[in-house]
Amino acid sequence: MDTIPFIKPSFPDPELIKNDISEIYKSNWYSNSGPYEQRLTRGVEEYIGNGVRAAIVCNATIALMMAIKHMFLENRKKVLIQSFTFAAGPHAIRWCGFEPVFFDVVLDTMQPDITQVDEYLRGNSEDVAGILLCNTFGVPNNNIEDWENLAQEYKLPLLIDSAAGFGATYLNGDRMGSRGDCEIFSFHATKPFGIGEGGAIVSKNVKLIEEFNKMKNFSFGHEKTAEFLGLNAKVDEITSAFGVRALEVFDARLVKRRNVLAEYRKKLDGKSVKFLPNEELSAVSYMTIMVDGNRDEIMSRFAENNIVVNKYYNPPIHLHPFFSDCEKISELKNTDYIYSNVISLPVHDDLDSASIDRITSLVY
């Protein structure tokens, strides 16, 4: 029985890449904001629209560290972040000298619980340096405007981790990337827009993006002198060429992935599972379902039938040994329930109906 993988990276046309590498050789420009990085930057900005500007960097974790260090309030220690997320955000928080404070998510949406954070800020805002908000699984948060208003009320920076969200749209039709003070995307191979490694910081704040583009090159100004805290977060020309070519076909790939999602939902209709709201607006990293207490049994059936599935985020961050001493706003009951019952099913561009039948037949 053939294995159905969890993800299948989409590589650009090798002939196009071959030509691009030849151009890179001819230009004698391997890194340091070369022509292909500039093309990718313009492409990302035009794709998102809404006046957004972009700083393309080597990966999204470095992007998070750059944004946290540059934007969050230095005289405070705490950064609010949901526990139901990937470890990159909490690691970046500690790398920058801050401490994560974990809050819960909403049971039905798996998105961060703004009510809980609002209550916490009423008595603790003087210790909070910023908010790191995560669009869970790259799915748009339908309360994003409320989060922006809450951050403004307490004069806190709002950084949005939209790692898997490049290509997603918010409920108002805007492409993800224009909300909060800035948003972070990952271009890692596991993401729908995957080019190997890479990431982006995007914002409507032109001055902020100019600073990040300096920051990623040791904060050098025109005189090659460091103007503030910087580092090396540049992306090379070959990776950028992959990004340029991936962007050319990305919309066509999104149609395929959303069609796969729609077929999953049709074939799972009537089964005892819950779907993630607004997932059809995402770039569809995978198909997420929530069962009720029989996940291990279902996971065993998948393993027996050579189908690779995943369970996110298992365990959530507050149960990782390195973060077990962090403050928690609540008992995180929803987080604990979700991580024990959620299953992520395979999605790739060419997943056919027979494979979806084979997968969904095991969910009961």
Q: Which characteristics define this entry?
A:
364 residues; alpha/beta; Aspartate Aminotransferase, domain 2; Aspartate Aminotransferase, domain 1; 2 domains; 12 helices; globular
For the record, what CATH class of the largest domain applies? Alpha Beta
Number of strands: 11
- The Rg value, from CA coordinates, equals 21 Å
Main sheet makeup: 8 strands, mixed
| Helix content percent band | 25-40%
Order of strands in the sheet with most strands: 1-7-6-5-4-2-3-10
CATH homologous superfamily placement of the largest domain = Type I PLP-dependent aspartate aminotransferase-like (Major domain)
Classification by helices and strands: alpha/beta
The CATH architecture category of the largest domain equals 3-Layer(aba) Sandwich
Number of domains: 2
Shape: globular
Could you report the average pLDDT, rounded to the nearest whole number? Answer: 97
Fold topology:
Layout: H1 14-27, H2 35-48, E1 53-57, H3 60-71, E2 78-82, H4 88-95, E3 99-103, H5 114-124, E4 128-134, H6 144-153, E5 158-161, E6 182-186, E7 199-203, H7 206-215, H8 237-248, H9 250-268, E8 274-275, E9 287-290, H10 295-304, E10 327-328, H11 333-341, E11 342-345, H12 353-360
Can you offer a commentary on this structure?
This protein has 364 residues and is an alpha/beta fold. It contains twelve helices and eleven strands. The chain folds into two domains: 235 residues, Aspartate Aminotransferase, domain 2 (3-Layer(aba) Sandwich); 111 residues, Aspartate Aminotransferase, domain 1 (Alpha-Beta Complex). The protein is globular, with a radius of gyration of 21 Å. The mean pLDDT is 97.
